[in-house]
Structures are given as C-alpha cells and as structure tokens.
Amino acid sequence: MGRMYGKGKGISKSAIPYRRNPPSWLKLSSQDVVDNVCKLAKKGLTPSQIGVILRDSHGVGQIRNVTGTKVLRILKANGFGPELPEDLYYLIKKAVSVRKHLERSRRDKDSKFRLILIESRIHRLARYYRESKQLPPNWKYVSKNAAALVS
Question: Other CB atoms closer than 10 Å to residue 44's CB: what's the count?
Fold first, then answer.
C-alpha cells in the first residue's frame, strides 16, 4: 500500500532502539528534558521540531525513553498543546498553498487533481481525529476558512 504523505510504496523504514531506557552516556535528567521541551514550545516550535532539536543539540534520541511520556503529552500537560494536530496542520497549509497557486494558474490541471487528493487526505485525517476525540465533533474543514487556520 502506498504512503499517505509520500510517493513510496516500499516496506523499508527506520527502527527505534529495542532498549527502552535512556543511554548511560546521557547526562540530562527527566526534568531537564521536560524543561527544554517547554522552553522550545514557548518559542513556537512544533513537537517534531522540538524532537529534532533535542536529538541534534542535546543527544536525546527518544524523549519518551528519558521522560516516560511523549513530547505531545508533555506539551498538553504544561498547557502548550497545539489546537490542531501537526500532520493535519501541515496538510491544510499545503492545500492553502496549492489553492493560492491555482488562483494564479487556472489552467494547471495537475495541481487541481493534487488539491483534490490533498483535501481528501485532510477529510480522512479529520474524521480520525474527530473519532479519537482530538478534534471537537463539529470540526469541519472548509477551504474558504483554511487560510485563517494556518496563518
């Protein structure tokens, strides 16, 4: 089956380490990592950007292994949780940019087709998030109001 966000159809993927405890060389405590996550969230970074910065700058491979909880759960517990899930936010942002392109280039049939695919992914993901109670039950994607969601 194909990927939801890429062109690939393969089965290759990265594997997280089997051991679920932090490495012995890591000197940061659990509270230090939580403080770093909250500090980066105050700057306006997304959960995946926070994970990349902690991995590259502080040597924390898996935040869950150090703290026992995931980045998004740490953010929600401290009141920094995003109002839209990150993957849905970026899909909406992509749809807004394609729609903006289509306003300038009306004859671009391929972009029109790609916009339909992107918006169907948005509807599918929104349905999942409504069912799992991460979005309110009356939340609906409306293309006219989408630019306001991602600005």
Answer: 8
pLDDT of residue 51: 95
Q: What is the 3-state secondary structure (H, E, C) of 20-84?
A: CCCCCCCCCCHHHHHHHHHHHHHCCCCHHHHHHHHHHHHCCCCHHHHHCCCHHHHHHHCCCCCCC
Judged by phi (left if over 0) then psi (alpha if -120 to 50, else beta), residue 119 lies in alpha
53/60 Cα distance (integer angstroms): 9
The Cα–Cα gap between 56 and 108 comes to 40
CA 75, CA 34: separation in Å to the nearest integer? 9
The stretches in the chain having pLDDT less than 50 are: none
Give the number of other Cβ atoms within 10 Å of residue 2's Cβ: 9
Residues near 78 by beta carbon (within 8 Å), at least 6 away in sequence: 34, 38, 41
Per-residue pLDDT at 13: 82
pLDDT of residue 110: 95
Alpha carbon of 135 to those of 29, 84, 90, 147: distances in Å? 33, 8, 16, 18
